[in-house]
Amino acid sequence: MTPTRTHTTALGRPLLLATLLVALLAAFLTPGRAAAASLQEVTGFGANPGALRMFRYVPDGLPAGRPVVVALHGCTQNASGYGTGSGWIQLADRWGFSVVLPQQQTANNASSCFDWFQSGDMQRGQGEAASVAQMVDRQLADVTGDASRVYVTGLSAGGGMTAVMMAAYPEKFAAGGIVAGLTYGCAQAAGSPYVCMYVGATQTPQQWGDRVRAAGPGYAGPWPTLIAFQGTADHTVKPVNMTDLVEQWTEVHGADQAADVSDTVAGYPHRVFRDAGGKAVVETYSLTGMGHGQPVDPGSGSEQCGTAGAYILDVNLCAAYRLGRAWGLG
Known about the structure:
Helix content is 32%, strand content 19%. The chain is of the alpha/beta class.
């Protein structure tokens, strides 16, 4: 059987291709059809004494005066994977804020953990803490962000570094979100980071609070508020560490250790601790049966975010969403 001939002439073919090309170009050049934003590395953001790398995500068309979230990855992770997996990049597009994603280098730590336990990296003006603070300053300048609405959060070692930033640079952060993380000064109180992680440190609330206050002598507040997430089946960072976080940060805020709200969210125990003025200063989510990782809830629902992966655990609750709503981001 002979194929049917078409009537497209040799001249007609290039005309057809040209027409299609013009249409495609018009579609992409039409206002409002810009390519989606992507993760960018920023260099030269300061002296960078901690030798970290800075990545950021800025949604297309982000107006001035929007909040900034600093998101710190866990061990063996990187900025891109954590930003996507945790849901923070997804929420940045949904709600309109920018994200700073510091990244550890293996030259600093072979497992790519932030050095939350090293005295040279957890003090104001030194090491990795100073590098993260310089990233915040650079981001605020570049995007004309709202300096009163900067938030810091992280998983595991990133959670430990979140506590470092809250203690060493409290004036820079309105709030912190610690996921499977640790108190400020925990390794020093326990005698080693591993004792801190697996057993905890014996300190009174006053002693815990004193460690935070010692990070910035003379600073009288306001202090960042805290929201913490912890898996009850976490054998890497034991649940006692969230108990210690509650003691540390309620004491710093002058609140007692008795929860003012005890309820459930998505089926998980949730507690809120308020100061004398009734402000929620510490909040906790206890993820029943969850191991070591970042809670996410993949999907397209209004309360869903994140993508499951290594140490990014689908437990039908997205920590980034809960943090973002509490912080007024969306």
